[in-house]
Design brief:
Layout: H1 2-16, H2 34-53, H3 59-64, H4 69-93, E1 102-103, H5 111-132, H6 139-163, H7 179-186, E2 190-192, E3 208-211, E4 220-225, E5 233-237, E6 243-247, E7 252-254, E8 262-269, E9 281-290, H8 294-308
Antiparallel strand pairs: 1-2, 3-4, 4-7, 5-6, 5-8, 8-9
Helix pairs in contact: 1-5, 2-4, 2-5, 4-6, 5-6, 5-7
Length: about 300
């Protein structure tokens, strides 16, 4: 299964690509209209996705990997959507629109690696739009962003199910991320950006790595990060922004039971802190997906319904 077997490939590739870069110098508070900042933040992600889908492996590569031709064709279609998102946001922003950066996605010439990276990026896109929505002040912009969000969610679901053979909706809720969390996930794929790009108030946190990269509930993981120390807490962000916090001891932590399924993010917090915030973050987030078989998901849903009665 692509999701559980190959997602580690995408995460590992991101960790060895060029060091994270800031889009430009950080903007001073009040320097730009908040909606313009948010739309450029969205455009930055859309540029990245657009560039990624321009590198869909060849039809021959998909055929040799055992995929039917329509799988590749759907990826090309998704790429068209991302280009449309870029064009739309660029037109709305006009002269304020940021230009595309230079990217390095690692070796995505093989369909398995490409699908794993698509799974990662589409999930990040959904989380980014979901997390940013509450900050948009213009109702027209909010509707436009929401229409992109629902499309990105459909992309993510398709990649998970049709291409990855995993659950298209492994959780009842999607997982939001804030601006710096999102940029920290995208930054390792960005090598440089044009000097003329508008300043965005985002910064990348140091990288956080979990091993195994796609852990299961209750499994112990090895935690690697700059500044890691015993006594710090590893916090997990899951569906609807629900969180769980566990202690790190000897570079190890256990995935808590609260984390039930779907896109999950892990953040390393400063010693003595248990609340997830930018000020409390040492490193991360690390991104991974927890999938369940259809049988296991149905059993869990039935058990939850019985407990609520």
């Amino acid at each position: 299964m692509i999701g559980t077997k190959f997602i580690a490939m995408a995460l590992a590739a991101a960790s060895v690509i060029a060091a994270p870069v800031e889009l430009t110098k950080r903007a001073a508070p009040g320097q730009a209209d908040i909606d313009t900042v948010i739309l450029n933040y969205a455009l930055t992600l859309e540029h990245l996705e657009d560039a990624f889908y321009q590198q869909v492996p060849s039809a021959e590569a998909f055929q040799q990997a055992g995929f039917p031709s329509w799988i590749r064709n759907r990826f090309v279609e998704i790429g068209g959507h991302e280009k449309a998102h870029v064009d739309f946001l660029t037109k709305v922003l006009g002269n304020d629109a940021v230009a595309a950066c230079t990217y390095n996605f690692g070796d995505i010439s093989k369909p398995a690696a490409f699908i794993a990276t698509s799974l990662l990026l589409e999930g990040v896109g959904v989380s980014a739009y979901l997390g940013a929505a509450a900050n948009i002040t213009n109702s027209a912009y909010l509707t436009a962003a929401a229409s992109i969000l629902t499309t990105e969610a459909r992309h993510s679901s398709w990649v998970q199910s049709a291409a990855g053979h995993e659950s298209p909706a492994a959780s009842a809720f999607d997982t939001p991320t804030n601006f710096n969390q999102t940029y920290s996930l995208a930054a390792p794929l960005i090598t440089s950006c044009p000097e003329g790009n508008a300043a965005l108030p985002v910064v990348a946190f140091p990288a956080l790595t979990l091993s195994p990269a796609s852990p299961k509930v209750g499994e112990e993981v090895t935690v690697t990060a700059e500044g890691l120390a015993d006594g710090q807490k590893l916090a997990f962000i899951t569906g609807a922004g629900m969180t769980a916090v566990v202690a790190v001891q000897g570079g190890k932590a256990k995935l808590p039971e609260l984390v039930q399924g779907g896109r999950t993010y892990a953040v390393l917090l400063k010693e003595g802190q248990e609340e997830i915030s930018d000020a409390n973050t040492v490193a991360g987030p690390a991104s991974f997906d927890i999938f369940m078989t259809a049988e296991a998901a149905a059993a869990a849903a039935t058990e939850a319904r019985q407990k609520s009665q």
